[in-house]
Amino acid sequence: MLNRRTLLKAGLGAAVPSLPAWAQDGPGFGVPPIPSTGYRRKKLGDIEVIALSDGVSRRPLTEQFVTNAPLAEVRALLAVQGLPTDYIDVPYTPFVLVFGGRKLLFDAGLGEYGGPTAGKLLTHLRAAGLQAGDIDTVVISHFHGDHIHGLRNKAGDLAFPKARVLVPAPEYAFWMDDGKARAATDERSKGLFANARRVFGDMPEAMLQRFEPGAELLPGLRSMPAYGHTPGHTVFEAGRGPHRFHYLADLTNVPALFARQPDWAVGFDMDPAAASRVRREIFARLVSSRAMVGGFHFPFPAFGHIEAAGSGYAFKPQV
Predict the structure, then answer these.
(1) For 23-56, what is each residue's pLDDT tens digit?
(2) 178-201: buried (b, 16+ CB within 10 Å) or exposed (e) per residue?
(3) CATH number at residue 78
(4) How many independent structural domains does the chain possess?
(5) CA torsion 56→136→44→147, rounded to 10°?
(6) Contact 45, 131 (CB under 8 A)
(7) In the prediction, which pLDDT does 16 show?
(8) pTM to 2 decimal places
(9) Are 236 and 221 in contact (CB under 8 A)?
(10) What pLDDT, on the 0 to 100 scale, is given for residue 319?
(11) Helices in the chain by DSSP H: which ranges?
């Protein structure tokens, strides 16, 4: 098994990016606004949901962002919503859930690998009155860098040293597979495999826990497979009855595009057809249940409800 100590020997170490492509701001488009208050709380029965802004990236809108729709149609959909048409602001929002005496962090953000307008999770965690040592569990939805970079700093130290780290078993199996890592040919894939090893390669076994999506991870916390964006992408439901919160991770990227048009594929979807199917299935259930949702790339504070809108859906924030 390749790990952080053997990355250089394996020829993958150089592929670990200092700043991931999805976090790089596009030149000439100005600086994206960061929320002035980088956290927001919401009570749901005996659950407290805390949205934590990890920042925002602004990237040029090109044909590579939506891979299966003409750029003119993408721009038109943004225009009718009063949004800019030459760039996209991509927010990053992990969540802390406080319930059952536990403090769970869902995804870890970019950490020290964020650009000037990203990597704000720990700052906003402290602003919300919490310390990294207060987090007893980190739940990871998938292994893209904006979700796992923040588990370690650049020196390799663990950012949440007292926390168990729960990861989907299929996701771990894919990105930690030595054969797949060696077979990667493009630089982005090489970087993703290398980064998974940087983060998880020598993580203590007592800390790292793999789970099968569909399992109940804790009383009142269920995991649900949502494969397509990545091979093991997983979403989560916390609470019971009318007081439920769904963490959707990257089920959809920017909802102004990919909720409104669920069959559109963001360039980061590894299996676009599967991602579209599961997106429609889960959104249809959420419209019926009216449960509160949170999405990693939703506009801050990134929690609210999913509603039907034409042939697709819309995210309605709750402030």
Answers:
(1) 555 567 889 988 889 999 999 999 999 999 999 9
(2) eeebeebeeeeebbbbbbbbbbbb
(3) 3.60.15.10
(4) 1
(5) 30
(6) no
(7) 46
(8) 0.93
(9) yes
(10) 72
(11) 7-10, 71-80, 121-127, 145-148, 169-175, 178-183, 187-200, 255-258, 272-289
